[in-house]
Amino acid sequence: MLSILIFLPLLGGIISAAWPRGGDDGGWRAGYVSLLFATVTLGISIGLIADFDSKAGLQHVTDFSWISQLGIHYKIGVDGLNLFLIALTALLWTGATAWSLFRQWPRPRNYYLMLALGETAALGAFCAQDLALFVLFFDLMLVPFYFLIGIWGGERRVQATTKFVIYTLVGSFLMLAGAVATGVLAAGNGQHVTFELSELAGRHLSTGTQDWIFLFFAAAFLVKMPAFPLHGWLPDAYRAAPTPVLTVLSGVLSKVGAYGFLRIALPLYPDAAVHFQDLLLVIALVSILYGSVMAFSQDSATMVVAYSSIAQLGFITLGIFSLRAEGAQGAVLQMVNHGLVVAPLFFIIALLSARAGGTDDLRRMGGLAARAPVLAALFLIVSLATLAIPGSANFMGEFLILTGVLKAKIVYALVAGTGVALAAVYMIRLYQRSMHNPLAAGAESRELTTADGLVIVPVVAVILALALYPQFVLHRSEKAVGTVVQQPQGAYIR
Amino acid sequence: MDIAWYLVLSAFIFCIGGAGVLTRRSPLVILICLELMLNAGNLALVAFARMTGTGDGQVFALVVMIVAACEVVVGLGLIVAMYRSHLPMDVDDMSELHG
Amino acid sequence: MNALHAPHIDYAGLSPLIALTGGICVVLLFGLARGPGTKMLVTSAALLTLTAAATLSAWQLGENKSLVEGALRADDLALSLDFVFYAAAAVALVLSLRYPGVSGASIGDYAALLLTSVTGMVVLAGANNLITLFVGLELLSIPLYVMCAVDLHRRTSLEAGLKYLVIGSVGSATLLYGLAFVYGATGSTDFGQIASSMGRNGIGGDPLLLTGIALAATGLAFKASVAPFHQWTPDVYEGAPTPVTAFMAVATKAAAFAIILRFFDVAVRPAKDDWDVALAALAVASIVIGNVGAIGQDSLKRLLAYSSVAQAGYMLAGVVVGTALGLKSVVFYLFAYLLMNVAAFAVVVARERETGLGDDIEAVAGIGVSRPVLAWPLTIGMLALAGFPGTVGFVGKFFLIEGAVQGDFAWLGVVIVIGSMVSLAYYLRVVAAVWMEPGAEAVRAVPVLAGGSADAGTFAGRVSRIPIEVTAVAVIAAAGAIAFGIVPSPLLDLAADAARAIF
Amino acid sequence: MESVVFFVAAFMAIGGALGVVLQRNPFYSVLSLVVHLLALAALFLLLSAEFIAAAQVIVYAGAVMVLYVFVVAYVGGLEDPLMEPNPVLRIAAPLFAVALGVELSVAILGSGLKGIDSRGPHVGAGFGSPAQIGQLFLTRFLIAFEVVSLLLLIAAVGAVVLARKSAAHPQADERVPGGTV
Amino acid sequence: MTATTFGWLVLAFPLAGSIVIALGFRRLPGRTAGWIGSAAIGLAFASSIGALIDLQSHPADARTLTSSLWDYVSTAGVSAKLGILVDPLAVFMCLVVSGVSFLIHVYSVAYMDSDQGYRRYFSYLNFFVFSMLLLVLAGNFVILIVGWAFVGFASYALISFWYRRRTATHAGIKAFVINVIGDVGLVIAAILIQRGTGALDFPGVFARAGDTWGQNEWGIVAICLLILVGAFAKSAQIPFHTWLADAMEGPTPVSALIHAATMVTAGVYLIARMHPLFELAPTAADISAAIGAFTLIFAASVALVVTDLKRIIAYSTISQIGYMIMAVSIAAYGAGMFHLMTHAFFKALMFMAAGSVIAAMAGVQDIDRMSGLRRAMPFTSAAFLIAALALGAFPGFSGYFSKDEILAFAAERGGGYWILWAAGTVGALATALYAFRMIFRVFFGEPNEEARELQEGRLPHGEHVNPATGEPEDTDVGYPGPEHHIAEREAAMRGPMTILAVLAIVGGFVQIPGVTHVIEHFLDPTFADSRFIDVETSTGHEALALVAGAVSSLAGIALAWALYVRNPGTTLRLVARFPHLHGFLVHKWYFDEAYDALVVRPMLALGRGASTTFERVVIGGMASGTALAVRAGNSAVRVAQSGLLRNYALLVMTGATALGLYFLIVAR
Q1: Which H/E stretch holds residue E477?
Q2: E22: which chain A residues are within 8 Å (Cβ-Cβ)?
């Protein structure tokens, strides 16, 4: 079941890639196939949610020994941690594929193949319940994105994508070393080497070992998110990435990092997590503040959102490293939320750029709301959700995160509070600079097309639904999150 | 004479050969210097054979002799080929490949 | 005088060697024939020889026996690596089929040289005493010296041959001197006896022995392109005809590691505590120098040469730990290395013939659009070398790190990882050129202007066709790199058998 | 007596070796090598390796040297200046030669092996005789023997490949600048 | 139907109205949207009355009813339902909010008629009412904060309603950001409360607060101060007051509704709602009262000098809220809420009248350009006068009773609270002064050009320029169209104004000292747990307050008459005499400038510096530094790779020697 979910998009991608070059349809048919598969994947993921038993642990487990000589299992499963991230991935990828479908791409077959490969890798990373498998999928994600940015990107795409991949792979390779070390060193006398997460969590690594391995993993995850000061790849990559790629890059890939902390770092290296709690909290806090300050001094709309991601991911990190159930729950919720808001944001920015004469420079936008009330309304909803206006699920996420941090380390929560206010500044500035103010020269206010609406509206609908009932997520993730924070909390007490 | 004498002698020859490889620029002479190094090895082998009283060393030495001959053959063939291509007989001028 | 007792000769165990030797003779004879079909005939004969040898090796798998009074081992370590040699040789033959650069030698001579080198590798891989080691190494090297220089009218080819010969001979002499010391210190040339004598007489830490090991290590490291004995590698790789380079890169390295594994893990095993740190230092040097040196290289062959230095460093980590796991990981990595490099080199060969730009990175620019069937193998090869997941390179690196960590050399695992990061800079540059840069198609159009002669016409006609056999090699290797990246178990089993032969 | 022979031979060996390295004319280098090889043969005799000594004289000093002389004659008397142009090598080459020599000597003299400070054990008359060598070659070192024969074959092939006047590339003639051939 | 059902209905109608208008924005013709919106609010008002009636049928000690729909959040000990709490305080607020809102909606139906953004306007306005009602009905902190933020957003949206005016968008951002700061304070307070008591719902928190914190313990004081951040940000108290004057960029009915009658008084409601906590933390309550008093003086002083009609009223609002904050902070809850109500009446009325004036002036808001409108706009000037009398606490008008009750209570608390009393009294004088400054300058004197045209039956129309900056206006999206609507010509405007005028006059009669106690008695169940519930103002203090109030009010009016009618030009002489004082006041005590210099500019500079310098040097430097090191290594390797064979041989020998040396060293 889960394997079908993971590999279905890839299958679709391969079919698209192999689709005959019938006529000059700009790859429309190929994309259509890809979209079809992505939609089915989305359907399956919704089915997973419907079928989810919030009281049980890991579900839909597939487990067989894959590379027995190395102790690597092909073990995948769903629990409260990844359930919604899977759905998010499927949703955003469907959106991105649909968005792509309505546009012309050079070499469309390869494009859809890469896009689909990205989905498979992301889903795999979320589903993996084996450390080695996780690392594999985690790194595999880079390949399609390398090409997607490098081939179909904007200006300076090659440098951007190279920077992106090298930055992230630096972390990934460190993680690879850490993962291997975990498997090997955790195997005590007479124990076989295994990378199975549940098994590893039961084995204990010495504190010193935990420390360095944890730092390796942290590096990988922080780069991926990215967090200050490891975000050097972000401006270039975001600037260069084509819009649909950007949505999944920011919406899904960044979550893998945060998810990794919850799935891997906390349960496996609890002592180190406690040991480095302050370090991570400081990084998170600086990310929040730095990202926010940067976000409100940017002139490019894309960059505003890009830096806001740093800040938002900082919040998620903050929640996770409160090492408390409240914070971690908030982080899980916030991961979903951020993915949901950032994708439509990038779509909308793309639309706005098209209306402002092809630039995302805020100084050359302005007054775009006039003839586009629907677009403006969607943008407004998404902006408000992004700045975590109370009443949005984002707010609940931040609320829980702050609760967790406040209970763990009060000072961080107080400083983080300023981050909440800063988010209001940069988001409302973004909205206002583009939609309000006098109409900029060369800009033209135009309503969004039905096709684009079909991509954005469902995502916004999900945002609204979650705003009304965030407990939908929290309820299902509670058990898994509780298990995750149990270990570090235990270590905390020691 | 103690075996050590032979060995030290062989070591000297080995080093002289090595120094020759480093200082001479004619490929021909470099080949000869390589012979020196191999011969030093042979001397050591024979000395050790005497020291341990086993025949292995002598067999080894014989094999090395043949190997050295083969290397010389190929090396000289190469030099002839270079000469035919009008390449300079100076290894310092053979530095098109670098970097 | 003692009566001469004829040694027991296990013809079954020797059968691959016999097949190869026979093949050499046959190929030499066929090469004398004149006529248009000679090339195909000789190549077929050589390929047949390799197939026969491979079949016989496969037949001998699992026997694990000593041949001719212990001079040679026909165990799974040797036999499994033999496949790498055979495969590399076959690839070289196929790539050479229509490669203009190797026509300096008659095809019979060329094939014989290649097969002889393979024979030397087989001997080397199975060598179980110092003399066999030395002659195996020489039998491997001397044909290679010739093959490097075989493109006689190209200056760089001769230069490569000369450099390889001279530096190789220096390495051989050093190795010999080291072997002499080892023999002297232990009184035996047999690996097993060396080891037992080291343990028995307490001479494990004797300066004579250790100096011998140092010098021997130098010679062996030289063959494996381990820094700082690597400097011949970029020059020779670049100068040699590309099919020869491909063969050298893969097979020589495998053979060198075969003997390094056997020498260190069997013969001088008791001195492990002394040599492991030294080898680790060499590994680090290789990883650093190889990866740093490869950056910014415009010649793909040079780039791959430096990359091979780095890869040698990675593999050395598997030797350093001196465990079964380490050995397994090295063997596995050699298989991986075969697939990854062949994929890359085949594309280089194809583009050399298509563009006239040689092995410059420009030659592969933009082939993502114009030649996807070549672009994918090259891309996969590069990503695999970089250790991307889903490829055999990832599993290989995973395995090496696992070995390093388990052998208490976790820091070496980290060095591998850091090296891999640096390596991205140049591997990705190639991939970027393939997919993200405009093509070099304009350059290809040049030959046609030569007055419309028949020659120019055929040249142009030949140029525009994708060389089918080269493409096939590239695609097969790339497919293998992916397939074994996803299902590595067959190779892992083979590697495990190889380890069992020693540990 | 033995000592005298040793020192004379050793002196000749080292002198020959130095001659190889220091002679500017390759031809003299070759001749120095012959001296060196003959001296080594004498040393081999002292070490009870008659067969090796004989092979040394016949194979090396005889056959191989003839080859050298032939090539030197063919290629021509090329003298290279003794003054080393490469500043690194001018200092480093002798330095490392000395360093390596010292190192090897330390290894040899510092060795705790008993045999090294002796003249070796008593060995029978057959030691080093052609018979013994032959026996070893046909038993334990059969493989080496066979491989070496293959090596000779392929070296010959290689030499032919390299030294053959290549018809495959006519441009070789075009590139003759002054025609010294 | 129970009170809680009515409560839900109260919320449902405005929300439904907002959604219906929003979704039907293309199809609703003419004034339909306005009437739908008004009807929705009317129904909400009716439901509030329903809730009131049902609530009164419960016994006095059972008038706190809760109801919830579903678990909004319930995890890891944090639990909040989507629930409401209906008690007298909530119902009181509902009545005031929905009642005044209804009237303003009706007023807007006409006033906004020719605006391009008519439907958007009513959608926002309905949404605002929904949010405000959600705020007052919230049953726990989470929902309270949700309502709190929603009104902030609605306020922002309506301030920036004419979004092609840069001044409007700028004011919107300012308001929004300050409101968010308040939100954050409230959020952190809520989290601290949750941490302390483990609950987020009001009854639970209040029940456990006493056990959790001791009297005036730092924890509860901190919480209360954080709550005050929220309250002050919303209620425009120092130091968070700067946004309210700028908020006048919005349409005038918005100013009436949000920035006078309802939203800005949310802070007052909040303190009243949180009274159990504030009574645990008297220090915080005292700070709050002091700030309230200070604000009322400050705002009144500024109102004396600014010349923008709406801004005068805005500062007046700030000042009046200062009174209310002071009241609830000194536990005069009934008095505070009473003043909240009367203020809603007369201030809404005043804004409506001002709107009418501004419409007549074609958007001009500067009172320097207004004069003698009395005859041209008789209805408007009458309404304005009533509102001014109420605001100026003219004896008998509603403001008189409510304000004096606060002062009386302050006097009753005695001690240091006398300072508050004094401030209130001085403020009352200033209030009367600036209220009549408007009356005299706008309606009296020589009729200006617009007034004359109006008297002749024409409505003057100037250029469409931004009144604040003089920039030409883009009428494409939402600036009022060519037809301006004044009360004299629109029944839909006159009706609500008339009702409010009546209420402004008689609204005070429900709570005449010593005579009626309607509000206090009604609210008693909510404040039953207050320590000050039994504090009754003594007759003496009440009398003192009444007399002092009357005197200061009359004195203020007289002073205004003296300054602006009898001796026009006096003020100019005063300005010439005290230029620094005038500048200080005109610049609103330099708060904006200080914020700009202390917060905004440093932040922007920080951001710019970060993006230009830090990002490039440090973040880029990390990457390029590594790259540089690698490149340096690369060139070293390449230099070593000289192509010279003998150099390679040398390296081989060097390596061999080094390796040998290592082995010699480790040799035993």
Answers
A1: none
A2: 377
Q: Tell which residue, A285, A138, A124, has the closest CA to residue A220.
A: A138
Query: How many of the other CB atoms lie within 10 Å of CB of C100?
Result: 12
pLDDT tens digits for range A219-265: 889 988 888 888 888 888 888 889 899 999 988 988 898 999 989 88
Cβ burial, residue D124 (10 Å; 0-12/13-18/19+) = exposed
d(CA E198, CA E74): 12
Using only C-alpha atoms, what is the Rg of chain D? Answer: 22
Q: How far, rounded to the nearest angstrom, does the alpha carbon of residue A377 sit from its chain's CA centroid?
A: 25
Least confident of A21-35, A66-80, E232-246, E606-620: A21-35
In whole angstroms, how large is the CA radius of gyration of chain B? 17
Give the one of C413, C432, C489 whose C-beta lies nearest to A158's C-beta: C432
Q: Alpha-carbon distance E94 to E11, whole Å? A: 10
Strand partners, C72: C67, C127
* C-alpha–C-alpha distance, residues E419 and C34, integer Å: 122
DSSP C33: -
The closest alpha carbon to C306, from C319, C288, C280, belongs to C288
> CA D54, CA A312: separation in Å to the nearest integer?
86
Nearest to E666 among C163, C274, C281 (CB): C274
Provide the sign of the torsion angle of the four alpha carbons A10, A15, A21, A24, taken in this order.
Answer: negative
Task: Report the residue of chain E nearest B94, measured CA to CA.
Answer: E644
Question: How far apart, in whole angstroms, are the C-alpha atoms of residue A85 and residue A255?
Answer: 8
Tell me how far apart the terminal alpha carbons of chain D are, to the nearest angstrom.
53
Which tens digits make up the pLDDT trace of E102-142?
999 998 888 888 777 888 889 999 999 999 999 999 888 88
Contact B26 D80 (CB under 8 A): yes
Q: A410: part of which helix (H) or strand (E)? A: helix A410-435
Contact D118 B2 (CB under 8 A): yes
Residue C229: Cβ-neighbour burial (10 angstroms; 0-12, 13-18, 19+) = buried
CB C115 within 8 A of CB C62: no
Query: Cα(E231)–Cα(E179) distance, rounded to whole angstroms?
Result: 9
Distance CA A439, CA D40 (A): 98
- Whether the predicted interface score ipTM is above 0.90: no
**pTM to 2 decimals?**
0.88
Phi-psi region at E578: left, alpha or beta (left = phi > 0; alpha = psi -120 to 50): beta
SS3 content of chain E, % helix, strand, coil (to 5): 75, 5, 20
Residue count of chain E, please give it: 668
**Are A456 and A347 contacting, i.e. CB atoms less than 8 angstroms apart?**
yes
Inspect the interface and report whether the beta carbons of C234 and E633 lie closer than 8 Å. no
**Nearest chain D Cα distance for residue C324, angstroms:** 28
Q: What is the largest CA-CA distance in chain B?
A: 51
What are the CA-CA distances from residue D79 to residues B26, B79, D178, E392, E658 (Å)? 8, 15, 20, 118, 33
Residues of A in contact with E477 (CB under 8 A): 367, 369-370
Question: What is the total residue count of chain A?
Answer: 494
Burial label, D76 (beta-carbon count in 10 A; 0-12, 13-18, 19+): exposed
From the list B3, B16, B43, B39, the residue with the least C-alpha distance to D14 is B16
| For residue E363, pLDDT beyond 80 | no
Measured distance CA(A194)–CA(A186) in Å, rounded:
8
Helix (H, G, I), strand (E, B) or coil at A488: helix
In angstroms, the Cα distances linking E47 to E14, E42, E93, E98 are: 11, 9, 13, 9
Which of C33, C55, C51, C52 has its CA nearest to residue C42? C33
